[in-house]
TrEMBL record:
It comes from Mycolicibacter minnesotensis. Signal peptide: none annotated. It holds the Pfam family ECH_1. This is Crotonase. InterPro entries: ClpP/crotonase-like_dom_sf (IPR029045), ECH/Chromodomain_protein (IPR051053), Enoyl-CoA_hydra/iso (IPR001753). The keyword Signal does not apply. It is found in: Peroxisome.
């Protein structure tokens, strides 16, 4: 099962479960998480969703072998929701979303934090947005959400440099809520999740709606801009060279 789901005390924990691929997102995992968010949104017994990863990674981003197949294989079959469907589900998710970054997060493993209401990070975890190293554009409205969250210069470094940042740097930049020791991450994230889950769901949803609604149009516009840039750059020379290097020399990889 590529996504495990557990309910306890009105908290639904969704665990990305492709540890052998560092929880990289293929079409099946994009679909599974999108479906899980849609189901949690509709479930009156779920107050909070807690998202984490199995093994040593939170998520290594988009599976680069699938990205290359999307460009080169005319028979490639996209998922029901895919990346864009997951981003729509994240943007519309009406309840608190908490991320517990247990290990490395690349690409969507970092940009998903723009949708988190609270994010906790292991002190040994690292984050990276490798878009410029792959010759592509940002994703998931990160070009809008991350400057809002971190400030323009912090976001510019993260999105432009393709360099790793540590948990302490992520905290200083305002990308995450707290840094935890690895063996305390799950319990600390769950403790906060259960505090929120003890409150009336209608009130939680009202607070989130009031916070998110003023930026909803700008977020959607950012997604459209990024998608246009991504379509223009995907398969272009810089991207093709980068994908060939990653998938050919490294036996596959992730954004």
């Amino acid at each position: 099962m590529i996504l495990t789901i557990e309910d306890k005390n009105r908290v639904r924990t969704c665990t990305l479960n492709r540890p052998e691929s560092l929880n990289a997102f293929n079409e099946a995992l994009y679909d599974a998480l999108a479906e899980a968010l849609l189901a949690a949104a509709a479930d009156p017994e779920v107050a909070v969703v807690l998202l984490t990863g199995a093994g040593r990674a939170f998520s290594a981003g988009t599976d680069l072998a699938e990205m290359q197949a999307m460009v080169t294989d005319p028979d490639f079959v996209p998922g029901k929701h895919g990346f864009r469907g997951l981003i729509t589900a994240l943007g519309q998710f009406p309840k608190p979303l908490i991320c517990a970054v247990n290990g490395l997060g690349l690409g969507i493993g970092t940009t998903i934090l723009g949708y988190a209401d609270l994010a906790f990070m292991s002190s040994t975890a690292r984050l990276k947005c490798p878009f410029t190293s792959l010759g592509v554009a940002p994703e998931a409205a990160s070009s809008y959400l991350l400057p809002q969250l971190m400030g323009r210069q912090n976001a510019a470094w993260l999105l432009m440099s393709s360099e790793w940042i540590t948990a302490e740097e992520a905290l200083r930049m305002g990308l995450i809520f707290a840094v935890c020791e690895p063996d305390e991450l799950d319990s600390e994230a769950r403790r906060h999740a259960e505090v929120l889950a003890s409150r009336p769901i209608s009130s939680l949803m009202a607070v989130k709606s009031a916070m998110v609604e003023p930026t909803r149009a700008e977020t959607l516009a950012a997604v459209e801009r990024e998608n246009a840039f991504f379509a223009e750059l995907l398969g272009a020379q810089a991207n093709a060279d980068a994908l060939a290097e990653f998938t050919g020399h490294r036996g596959g990889g992730s954004v």
